[in-house]
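Final report, results section. Input specification for complex C-07:
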Amino acid sequence: MTNKEPPNYQRIVDDLRSRILSGELAPGHKLPTEKELQQRWGFSTTIVKHALTLLRSEGLIEGRRGSGNYVRDRTQLVRRAHSRDMRKRLGSTSPFARDSEAAGRQPSWESESKKIPATPHVAGRLGIRPGDSVMHTKYRYLADGDPIQLADSYEPLAVTGGTQVEYPEQGPVIGVVARMDFIGVAIDRFVEEVTTRPAMPEEITALELDPRSGRWVIAIERTYYAGPTAVETADIVFPGDRYRLVYEMPIDPWPPSKEAETP
Amino acid sequence: MTNKEPPNYQRIVDDLRSRILSGELAPGHKLPTEKELQQRWGFSTTIVKHALTLLRSEGLIEGRRGSGNYVRDRTQLVRRAHSRDMRKRLGSTSPFARDSEAAGRQPSWESESKKIPATPHVAGRLGIRPGDSVMHTKYRYLADGDPIQLADSYEPLAVTGGTQVEYPEQGPVIGVVARMDFIGVAIDRFVEEVTTRPAMPEEITALELDPRSGRWVIAIERTYYAGPTAVETADIVFPGDRYRLVYEMPIDPWPPSKEAETP
DNA sequence: TAGTGGTCTAGACCACAAT
DNA sequence: TTGTGGTCTAGACCACTAC
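Structure output:
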């Protein structure tokens, strides 16, 4: 007994999707018009439109009224996370700026900082009490003027309050690790939790996403620690198909080393 | 001048999506029937069906014929990646098994190993010549019997050929780091590149995804290095909304230490 | 002006669940 | 048997592009 046949709209979707993902239909390529697809497959207009809607919802194509459907550009920015020592580079630029410039795009960002009492959720992540004061900074990052990343950062004022780096964007140093080092707090690790989910309406607005295409985001919860103490936590959001996250992780960097242990 | 109004189907989508993501409509909750939505909003059947199709394509709901539409369970498995020393745990279980058991689910897997000539793409990642022999192992991982992860692993036979760990699943040790250590190859880092994209048809089949819901995957390209030499590379694929990736990264773990550098 | 995609109508018919 | 969602028809009308 054979499997049941897929529905007609699914056959169009599968055909075009595999040709797009394989590269046969390159970004920018114009798809056949709806009428052509209708005639080629022998399906009704509605079914062809439905198939194209699904491909748009997957972010693989974009429709342009009066013109046609086109294979979407899925060029990705690279975001690097690694162990390298960044403490000595006082005044160095931010990780976002470095990644953007590496991709040949002009970085810029907007930010807004405010002291607020910690919500229970943020307090849990920072290991402080709900209501304790934290510095909340909202960021919106742009590459060549296009919004490409959002972040909400929270820092306990028990750590930074009253110091020169209390306001993240006003101090003499940029970047969490460098700023904390500046006030004598040695960050020794961070934890990132990566998930994907549909974009929320505010994110669609802030990232200027097409409501019909590419509505998925990558969400990261990041927390920096100095020993057992959390000194910053942030929620970071990217357009899901516009970013590639790179983690370069050392293995077994700590003593006891193999030589020290083995006779 | 105000913004143009969103289309009718979008209003339904936005309403239900925000209520689902906020938790007001919990996983398992039954949505109003199509007829009820039609009456409540005053739209045609087609427009209500279209809105529900989009929510399904986002993986937020699943339709059950003859029953109703339900908020989808988005419980996530956790996959951990960190720097801990795993070399000494000979015979230890695999990372996948550890993560699954931590989530209270029963791990199992299928694998199949074969010697093949390296494709140009794999050769590039391993820093060897196309055509050089590699061990290709296909994995399918299951939790409580449900397929939950796919992997294609490639190891240069120049490294493992003729040793006891040549066939990954037949040696005395499990896991890349432990196996390489067993033959005297000290892995000191790995790199993971994380992206998201729509699932390809074979992946939908192998992961038993609903073609109508949750068609997104997280794809990881991972490469292990011993010094400058790549000793394994793998393509790993997860259902996008079923996994949470956790990276725990040390900062500045290598000499020269701060003390060594600063007078 | 002609052609294209985006939204929408008013249904029909089928597969399946609940009863 | 009734109610539900899934697939599909045969269009209409609008917004916009390309010419």
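The CA atoms of residues 134 and 156 of chain A lie 4 Å apart. Confidence is low (pLDDT under 50) at residues 253-263 of chain A. This concludes the modelling results for the funded period.
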